[in-house]
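Sample intake sheet
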Amino acid sequence: MNKTLVSSALIAALLLIGTEASAASPADKAQAGMASYYHDRFNGRRTASGARYNKGELSAAHKTLPLGSRVRVTDSRSGRSVVVRINDRGPYARGRVIDLSRAAASEIGLVSKGVSRVTLEVLKVSGEVGT
C-alpha cells in the first residue's frame, strides 16, 4: 500500500515538474530578429487559423507560437511597439522571425522600411484562435 502511495506521489510530482518546465518553454522568452509584413495581395486569403487575413487588423504570422497567442513587437531602432495576435504560420523568408499585418507594420513604422529588426515579447500563449 505504501509503495503505491509513494509511486502515485512521485508520478504526480513529476507531472507537475513537467508542467512547469513546459510553461517555461522558448515561447515564453523574448525573441529578436527581422520582421516584415504581408503584401496587400494576401488580403482576404485564409490564414493557418482559418480566419481571413485582414490588412487592417493587428495580426501576425509566426513559425512556432500557438495560434491565438498575443505578442508585443517592438522596433529595435525606434522603440515603437504594437501588440498582435498570431493567426498564421510563417514567415518563410530566410532570417525573418515574424510577418506583420499591414496595420501592425504601420503602427511601428515598418511599412516605409519593408524589413526591420524587432524584439518579440510573448504576452499570452494560447491554443485557441479566438482568445
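Comment: Helices lie at 2-23, 102-107. The CA atoms of residues 75 and 118 lie 4 Å apart.
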